[in-house]
Specification:
This protein has 396 residues and is α/β, with parallel strands linked by helices. 46% of the residues lie in helices and 11% in strands. The chain has a six-stranded parallel sheet, sandwiched between helices. The longest helix is centred in the middle third of the chain and has 20 residues. The termini are far apart.
Length: 396
């Protein structure tokens, strides 16, 4: 048995934990020190409309911390916005970052944190994949507080960020020293107001972080244990959290599964499903990441089931998702499709987001160029033609 567990984030989990933020920053002995914060939020209205920004500002005032707000992050955060945010943080002499939002906001905050402290003004100099400059950032990021308002990416728990370069149509991972959040607030009360379809997209993203880790050839006993509980928590509660938007218990269980899935990515790995989706939403930025994963999921997992290389893992996945009598790998597909129907996301179409069939062959290469390391984690290597068939079988 062998694994590396190095998840250093101080996580405050549970309903009402947002109200404890002022004890975690600025004050003597707190994990985050400094007197001025850069608040990073999305370019949408929900953070302000739901009163979350007002509450965050009040927490900072209680801690005696000044702040400025950067509110330009989109649902698929981009290189130019991260660079602008880093420049703004430098100009404002910010000591740390508070990211308030979903995975996109937290990912953007990590990239902004690196740009605020490092010499290059070009984020892509610090990207290790595709056309990136493959330079290790010489300086650590500004310290990051991650306050997640969604249950999906687990970005509050890990050190990676996913950023899109519109010029090269690459969507890839960015890592660097200090990008692991120092403090994370996972308060399910902040997630209750998420619209049903986005709650579903985010929940499936969390689920797939762990189902991918479960079948990865890099799986270890620690990642298996964490992924198992994440899968149980998300699959057993997501439909209820959507159908009953005031059900704090169901939302808490989904949030717990999302948090665990972030840890799974630290101690285990994802496989090629994630870069295959990134290739879709890099070119079509309005496609939510979770929706893209749902679109390709049935064909993706079926491709490996057909190889019969990990039959017992797929049977166990079906059992974790509630099919106690599962006895064949195809039962996982049955459980997956049932969950998608229960969550109202079984009819998603690539064509609704402007994706064309003729684009698909180029996306396989794009996925390999931008995050090829994930393909090395697949249960068995597929050919480029087989990866293309996953897209083609998923296309509607």
């Amino acid at each position: 048995m062998s694994f590396n567990f190095a998840v250093t984030t101080n996580a405050r989990f549970g309903a009402g934990k947002f109200n404890e933020l002022h004890t975690m920053i600025g004050v003597p002995g707190a994990p985050i020190q400094g007197k001025k914060a850069l608040i990073v939020i999305s370019n949408g209205r929900s953070t302000r409309a739901n009163g979350y920004l007002d509450r965050l500002e009040d927490e900072l005032r209680q801690a005696g911390v000044e702040y400025v707000v950067f509110d330009k992050v989109s649902s698929n955060p981009t290189k130019p916005v991260a660079e602008e945010g880093g420049k703004f943080a430098k100009e404002q002499s910010c000591d740390f970052i508070v990211a308030l939002g979903g995975g996109s906001v937290i990912d953007a905050a990590k990239a902004i944190g690196l740009m605020a402290t490092n010499p290059s003004s070009n984020l892509w100099d610090y990207v290790m994949f595709g056309t990136g400059g493959k330079q290790q950032p010489p300086m650590p990021s500004l310290p990051i507080v991650a306050i997640t308002t969604t249950a999906g990416t687990g970005s509050e728990t890990d050190g990676g960020a996913v950023i899109t370069n519109p010029e090269t149509q690459e969507k890839t991972g960015i890592f660097g020293p200090g990008t692991m959040p120092v403090v994370a607030i996972i308060d399910p009360e902040l997630m209750m107001s998420v619209p049903a379809k986005f709650k579903a997209y985010q929940g499936f993203d969390a689920l797939f972080h762990s189902t991918e880790g479960f079948i990865s050839n890099k799986r270890n006993e620690m990642s298996r244990m964490i992924a198992s509980e994440a899968i149980r928590s998300v699959s057993g509660n997501l439909a209820r959290a959507i159908a009953e938007p005031d059900n704090i218990e169901a939302m808490t269980r989904v949030a717990f599964g999302s948090y665990l899935s972030g840890i799974q990515m630290c101690v285990g790995s994802c496989v090629s499903a994630h870069p295959l989706e990134h290739a879709l939403s890099a070119r079509h930025e309005k496609l939510p990441h979770g929706a893209g994963l749902i679109m390709i999921s049935r064909a993706f997992y079926q491709a490996f089931i057909d190889k019969h290389v990990m039959d017992e893992r797929f049977i166990e996945l079906a059992q974790l998702m509630g099919m106690e009598d599962a006895d064949k790998p195809e039962d996982f597909i049955t459980a997956l499709v049932r969950m998608q129907k229960d969550c109202g996301v079984d009819d998603l179409k690539m064509s609704d987001y402007g994706i064309l069939p003729e684009e698909l062959p180029g996306m396989v290469q794009n996925a390999k160029d931008t995050l090829g390391t994930n393909f090395l984690n697949d249960p068995v290597a597929l050919t480029d033609e087989e990866y293309l068939q996953i897209y083609q079988k998923s296309y509607r």
